[in-house]
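Cross-check.
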Amino acid sequence: MEEHMSERRDPTSRIHLCDCNRSFALDAGRLAAGTDAAMQCHHALCGAELPALQTSLAGGKTVHVACTQETALFGELAEEAGAGERIRFFNLREHAGWSAESAAATPKLAALIAAATTLADPEPVAAVQMSAGRSLLIIGEAGAALGWAERLAGSFEPAVLITARSKDVELPAVNAYPVWSGRPVRLGGHLGAFELEWTQHNPIDLELCVRCNACVKACPEGAIGWDLQVDVDACRSHGACVAACGEIGAIDFARQDSARSERFDLVLDLSAEPLLRRVELPDGYAAPGRDPFEQALAVQALGEFVGEFEKPRYVAFEAALCAHSRAKKTGCSNCIESCSTAAIRSNGDVIAVDPYLCKGCGTCSTVCPSGALSFQYPRVPELGQRVKTLLAEYARAGGTDACLLFHSAAAGSAAIARLARRGRGLPARVIPVEVWSADAVGLDLMLGSLALGACQVAVLAAGSHDAAPLEAQAGHGQAILSALGYGGEHLRVIEADADDWQALERALYDWAPAMTVAEPARFRLLAKKRETLDFALRHLVAHAPATTTPAGLPAAIALNAGAPFGQVIASDACTLCMSCTGACPAGALRAASDAYRLEFVEKNCLQCGLCEASCPESAITLEPRLLPGEYGTEGARRARALREADIFHCTACGKAMGAAPLIESMIARLSGHAMFAGEAERARLRMCADCRVIDMMKAETAVKAWDLTE
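Predicted model, tokenized:
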């Protein structure tokens, strides 16, 4: 087919587009005008026109192919040509071409081509090394657990913990693997390093038992089954089994040391109620329940975890920004409460993230108000650059009312593909943006995208374990935008998957465009969450439609609980003890240097609640809100007085003693003590330390040393 290229041809790369047997339209001329690279359009690149791709690969150029269906075929050709590192794939067919609005999709096609061919690969993410051997713990009722242990003994190194009796089940005749009995207490750890703690409640210690079955035959009540478990309710303590066991000493009804623990690489939990109850179970742990078919599938899956693995360290943590706790007072626990894998725990004043358990949903970074947790796969700056490129090229090609659709790489892509194949496809103005996990799309990315020129931002929650945090973030953002005068609905979370692609179609086609910012911002989204929010809000406020109305910008925008903006309110009960200033992790509360005054910088406030938890007078409450005026000028980060008090002076010498409310509060509390029962004692509380001693000496009636004579 005809080759198209721009006047500024890039000789180092070549783009191959394909309309997949003419199933959608490609305006080659308009698309080529937006790129520096030579571009070729095809009808059957994977068939009759395959030699064109082979020629490009042999020419030493970086080759971009707009087809993801035939990556195996094209990748094999690249390897044969020694060009495996020089071929890139991107999707135009499902993302833009297969659409009821395909004729109007050229601006979106141009944007997708620009992003795929001009952006550098993301910086590598730090990796977590994991390894697992064949040590497999099987937990459950004797029959099922021993049955699977026998089947798997040739491919794993099994160990069995029997948790329930099966009287007629016999232990294996060959002692080829450990068998214990007991009650699980705690299962922790991760793939390759699971640790189980249990209590040995069976009087027969199966580690010492030689399985001679003498105890079974000796028991007059038949309380010992062939599984060598003792039915303590049937046992009458005759001691016949102990005598039969003899010098082996495996039976002890008075055992004191019952705590046991072992480490394993993998765990097959056959219990009716799983030991781990989490939304996302750790790799290497399977809890299929009692269904034999599900158990077989679980065993097959566990076999895939044997070996050495590497996975991204999805989240970065900056302890200095964490607002979790101070002085044993808990503030923000959003990340702990939202983590689906139990990978985040309290660790003193901060939190700790276990990278071995983390599966990269990113919800923790979304709900973190300070940015102490930041998602790395991809990083916000890299994702922001992609958004900026997409929006700029879309506008250059004549597109309007751009709507960004953030979606996960797996479940989200599957839903979009199903919509393209069976429904109307994505609208021409909807630009898909792939991320590892849609749960990591926080308020900074939402508002930042709108400031960069997007009309709307949608998050496809396919694959999300809980869309509530996303809904909350979108709610905060929409409240701010509506109050600033931006008409319409700008933020939407769409709960749909591949099986419910019709819901995605309805949500996108029924969504009327909203008001766009008059001038797209030029800044880049930054790694620090609060800085990105600051830039985005400054731009949105500066161009807010409300500024042109008679009413102007609102003085304050009310937000729902959980918003990362707001004010602190100090009631009259505040004594200016300043406990809150020491607890505040963001410098929002501070003590004035020139007076007894509590000052507040609202722009710094995270609404973490540490000040509220630390206040001994219960005088502090939080009010989520946003002050648009704080983002109007460069010098808007100003402090205001929350509470100010007079100085309390010593009643004897006039020396300054501290803030009057604090001293009065102290006096009120001590006045009821027996040491201050008299008026004179209570009066001394209003004196400084020196005057208090002098007054006590004057009132002393005992004989003094200087009054003594020989």
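The mean pLDDT is 91. Residues 380-396 form the longest helix (17 residues). Passed to J.P. for a second look.
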